[in-house]
Amino acid sequence: MERPLGWVSLGRAYVNLHGGAPEVCRRSRTFRSHVQQQNVQVVSALCREAFSEDADVEPAVHEDIESRTPEMSASSSAFSFAVDKSPQVDEIMTAGGSSGEGEDEGPSGEEISSEGEGDDVGDVAKDLGDVVNGEDQKQDIMVVAERIRQEGKTYQEQGKLVLAKELYRKAVELAPKLGKGWQNLARVERRIGGSAEDSLAIIKEALTHDPQNSYLWLTCGVLEQERGNKTQAREMFRKGLEYDRTQVAVYVSWARFESMEGNYDLARKLYMEGTKHDPMCERLYHSWAIMEARVGNAQRAEELFKQGLEVDPKNTYLWHGLGRIAVEQNKPEKARYCFEKALNENPDNAVVLYSLAYMELYRAKDYDAARRLFDRALEIDPTSTKVLVLYSKLEMHEENFAEAAALAEQAIEASPTDSAAIIQLAVVESFRENHSYARQLFKRAIDLHPRNMDAYYRWGTMEWRAGNRELANKLLQKCRTSTYNYEQYIDF
Predict the structure, then answer these.
(1) Could you tell me which residues come within 8 angstroms of residue 208 by beta carbon, excluding any fewer than 6 positions away?
(2) DSSP class of residue 484?
(3) Which residue intervals define the domain Cytochrome c-type biogenesis protein H TPR in the entry (predicted)?
């Protein structure tokens, strides 16, 4: 795929290449002026003219992009986003689309700083033989904003989160109704260390521009849920359906929330209502099936996974879910078939590889096959704590305690607050008779989750084996009042 070409500092590249010639400097100021005024068609024409006159400009702009840092992006007064020479949008959606975006009503009123003053629109249009039409410009602004957002996604995938954030912010400044841009901005805010409150503030800002966007209300509901504000979360979901009762994503998220609260009948009603609006939504069947599996309704879960596969026979996650049901039913051959179908569609899915390894370990008892799958999963995601912990359990079972400890330590390094990883290392150390260190680890896990049944049970078992029966009884007694279960049904 062709790398998006940056319009980041075309004017500066022009000046650098031509030694600051007066004509070039004038064009540079003109370019920046029209960036400031967001005259997209004029900017496009200037770029096309530049590339046609001097082929060295294009690589110079590329070089300029490569040399930029997130800090420069945040402070530069140049045009701080990137688009293709001929923008083509893959995912521009209007209100009601999956992006949650509405139709753009024009650029934001916030100005972008610029040095110098350029010619007005009429003069440049005359020079270029291009007349700017207001409605066409409005449409082009949405196109450009979407390309900025796509560029932000590219940087986010590369781990350049600060730069991605700047690009998302620029996209929504240019097109305030770009729903996906606001959602991307809220998500990346969390990834760079922001709180749920920070992300919620971003979405509420978005709602001031597009108060009838059901997807933005949905996002508010999820964030309020994360903050523990259950009443507000329900109100946000209700708002989303008030503005668009056909949005299945709202039904799914609200139903998932109610299922987590134990309101299974209400969750089922929401899922059922969602199917009325879109009976071909495989995501809905997947989410509903997971809920039924978690409450022990394996048969119903299997039916729902199969319904989803009727809609999309190649869906990796539905095949994976069906395989998990087969694992719970102790049907290893059926489980292996389902997992292999999932891997045929997505060979590098670490979650499916984990589940297949789990099945080989606990159902088929094929430890060599499990090791191969663990190694393959870790090649894809070396920081997967679930894979590392389960791999550690296999090595502990085979009495390879040093290797088991190393894997558990690697899991803790990847996720220092993962109680499953901490408990696993404690168990390994208990078998190595490093009881003092094991006690520290068990206490650390309980400090993280004071009602962690597994921590009390494993600690009590260690003390019983060590002959500390009184302490063991006290710890095991705690299991009866501890309800925290860290091994929930696997996330699909």
Answers:
(1) none
(2) B
(3) 307-418
